[in-house]
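Field notebook, page 173. I keep forgetting to write these up properly, so this time I am using the form the group agreed on. The chain and the ligand, zinc ion, are recorded exactly as supplied. Prediction of the bound pose follows.
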Amino acid sequence: MRRRPLGVAHCGSPSTLAGVSVQPGARRDEAEDGPRRRAVVDYALQRRARLADVYAGRASLHDVCDAHPYLLRAAKFHGQPSGVSCPVCRREQLTEVHYVYGDTLKTLSGQAKAPQELDDMARRLREFSVYVVEVCRSCSWNHLTTSFVIGRGSAAPTRRRRAGDGRVLEGES
Ligand SMILES: [Zn+2]
């Protein structure tokens, strides 16, 4: 899988974004009537590296389980269960929080939104960015997992890249 580096100016996660990678043109297939996600960036590699640091003792729990109170609050009110156990404490399922950014959002930029709200906004607004952060409400582990651009858009059609076997190349989780 070919990746190229991308700088991300801002996000809702305190995690470092150095070494972030992107798959150009990669996209997720949405439901027929659902808004299309563009410029999908998957942070699974960074997440794995971070967890490897924890398991190897190179990073302390104090370093990685540092969810901001606002993030924990957002998880409580706007989050959705990810179905994945916390990789650090394994005590509960991770919660995903979707943060929205963009000039079109005005004062809403930087807020956490429930997935249903995102779909509604994506139908009304031209374009905005979404950053998905996973957080454990038990131990406060948190990490940026995915970012994408969404909206009714005017963008040129996205180019699909497929693997040799026809799979659409996109972020695995
Ligand atoms: Zn945990």
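OBSERVATIONS:
- The pocket of zinc ion is lined by residues 86, 88-89, 91, 136, 138-139, 141 (CB under 6 Å).
- The chain is about 20% helix and 25% strand.
FOLLOW-UP: compare against the apo run.
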